[in-house]
């Protein structure tokens, strides 16, 4: 019988994170700390800019990489925030960071090229690599505080022998752990990356939600080898608007535009005008949210540690990656399913984020304090019942 479907598509699955969220969303009274979805609304001035764009009939095609004014504004915005040195020609406007990741990997990966992915990590990079016939090599970082060390990276590259090790994926601040990299850690990685001539797909979508030291990027060390992925979903509570950015050397953006064009043509026109407003007049919008995220994080840590939960170093994003107390089921799927069934509280199992994640749960604090208080009450009851 004829095989009708791409074999790689058949082997991958819809995200189990989404599947579980959909499942528990049907239960009345469920408190969900599942998705990375800010509970804030998009800033009013950004919404008004989109309305004006519609009224001005901004409903036609834009250039593939986005309207020139937005590309210029994005370069200026990130240069100011993170001391980068990009120009408009280094920027592609994408349909969210999700499309940016797909575009970057499609541009880089040849069949059988190796892409190194440290875990635990949000799993999107894995099917994107496989769909381009690349090979994924994982590095479990759990023994090193969920930080990829230069020594582990170099050893992993050397272990590949004659294979072409094309790229490293990094996500920091990290989803699911909230861990990020400091100056010295990035400097050490940069030396190894430069030595082995790797490309880095550097997903920094949570960059503006760094709570300790100011965010630094590998683009501050080796910009010639880095493709930065960023966007407005987390910083401006614009998840549903689907607007992201790729920032890279011009010779790279010139190639990525091709993959981007045939994937999406261009982002939605009026959304680009909303993004332009966010990047010109909303430079501090994220800080209002960040202040509340810190309060929520600290509340959860203070509340959960007495229950026996141990947390990774939560320096950014809006997640806690919590080690399940010893008296509770250590299989993370068993833990979250029992918790949802008995207490109507939904978390994400750590195993969904790859090696090093088993025995943990991810708790999103992109939720109201009222819901976090309910979550603490329900977690307390669950842990005490065991």
UniProtKB/TrEMBL annotation:
Protein family (similarity comment): Belongs to the class-I pyridoxal-phosphate-dependent aminotransferase family.
NCBIfam families xrefs: PRK07309.1
Record-listed E.C. numbers: 2.6.1.-
InterPro entries registered for this protein in UniProt: Aminotransferase_I/II_large, AspAT/PAT-like, NHTrfase_class1_PyrdxlP-BS, PyrdxlP-dep_Trfase, PyrdxlP-dep_Trfase_major, PyrdxlP-dep_Trfase_small
Protein name: Aminotransferase
Keywords: Aminotransferase, Pyridoxal phosphate, Transferase
Domain of life: Bacteria
GO MF term list: transaminase activity
Root EC class: transferase
UniProt source species: Loigolactobacillus zhaoyuanensis
CDD domains: AAT_like
Cofactor (UniProt): pyridoxal 5'-phosphate
Location of the Aminotransferase class I/classII large domain: 30-379
